[in-house]
Amino acid sequence: MSSPATMGAVSGGIEERIRAWEGQGVVCRYDRETDSWVFISLHRDTLGPFTGGTRMKSYPSLDEALEDGQRLAAGMTAKWAVLGMPYGGGKAVLAVPGPLEGGAREGLLRRYGRLVASLGGRFRTGEDMGTTPDDMCILAEETEFVHGFDRETGEKLDPSPYTARGVWAGIAAGCAEVFGSDDLDGRTVLIEGLGHVGWRLAEMLRESGAGLLVADIDGARCERAARELGATVVETAQVASAECDVYAPSAIGATVNRDTIPRLACRLIAGSANNQLAEPADADRLVERGIAYVPDYVINGGGAMSFGLMSNGEKDPETLRRRVEAIGDTVSELLREAAERGESPVAAANRRVERVLAASARAE
Ligand code: NAD
Fold first, then answer.
1. Ligand 1: nearest atom to the Cα of 199
2. Is residue 153 part of a domain?
């Protein structure tokens, strides 16, 4: 992180980046008390208010902090559009000089919460990397525009079960396109990452009769999956070449790349991790290998979708379940469209985003 003394040199970079960005604008604030910077990147509000998580992180430079927020905000525009939700793409980055705890953390969050409140609902936010449900509770005391928090009960909500359900539905839909049946009984799914999403996904797949391969850097989680879910443990280094029907990346990004693609021994990639492809060209590499890839932003939106619905007053568990499982229908449509055109599902998904945005802009 740059110190204030070097900011003059850096500011040219961020000024240019803000001006050159295709999004609608960036709200910036310097927080003197914690020497942190706040960037709220507002990408496109064609479909509704700018909505996306709040990330707290230390970055090597301000330029990288801003770039991260802008990239994530654009990703949210695509995610909301493909999910058919009435929200626009936004993202907040709190670029902190180092780990913030206690009063300093709370102070930053409260001042940031008041900044969000001052935008009058044009930007709505929730938890993201580096922020916690407790942080959201603090924010919720300063602004009503926080997702993932039940105002009536004061309860913190966890998006992971909804995300897992959307991925599960997407895997079944993907299997229908690739193998001709959505029956998961007897399919082998490799789950990389047994965290909040991966563990619940493993349970759901197990209940559906799928055979599980699991990998996690945390050996205790793998042992538990072997014991409780009958999973076979795969070394993390062997994930790319492990034979399976479906590979579900559910830990870190960029595991699908020019090095791993030639070794992949699956027919379908469908998991919760963000940014699974290391670079855009990987989508075409997968087409060449005959591996169907469900774009991450299509399949991992169950948590965002349910929080969006809940913040609009939808609480019926059955409705939420139905809406999240409908992610499977979107996956089917996109895989079919891509197969018919001989293109990657990423291209089909991106085209759908443009279509949805254009239709909404025309309707205004
Ligand atoms: P988590 O932190 O709870 O779990 C991540 C798991 O991955 C942990 O068990 C960790 O030990 C393991 N892991 C880390 N590095 C690994 C590696 N190199 N190889 C194998 N395992 C590794 O995270 P989560 O909430 O379960 O989210 C998982 C992924 O899904 C993340 O990429 C996240 O951004 C994405 N995602 C999550 C949600 C959600 O609702 N939680 C929504 C959308 C996207």
1. 26
2. no
Instruction: Give pLDDT tens digits for 304-315.
Output: 999 999 988 898
Report the Cα 239 to chain-centroid distance in Å: 22
Could you tell me which of 189, 162, 182, 158 has the C-alpha nearest to residue 331? 182
The number of folded domains in the chain is 2
- In single-letter form, the type of residue at position 360 comes to S
Distance CA 151, CA 311 (A): 9
Is the same domain home to 202 and 136? no
Sign of CA dihedral 209, 210, 212, 216: negative
Report the range of poorest mean pLDDT among 23-32, 36-45, 144-153, 175-184. 144-153
pTM of the model: 0.91
Same structural domain, 100 and 194: no
* Ligand 1 in reach of 218 Cβ (< 6 A): yes
Query: Residue 304 belongs to what domain range?
Result: 160-355
Q: 3-class secondary structure for 133-200?
A: HHHHHHHHHHCCCECCECCCCCCECCCHHHHHHHHHHHHHHHHHHHHCCCCCCCCEEEEECCCHHHHH
Q: Would you say the CB of residue 299 lies under 6 angstroms from ligand 1?
A: no
91 annotated active-site: yes
**CA-195 nearest atom, ligand 1:** 4
Amino acid 2: pLDDT: 39
In a domain, 67, yes or no: yes
What does pLDDT average to over the chain?
94
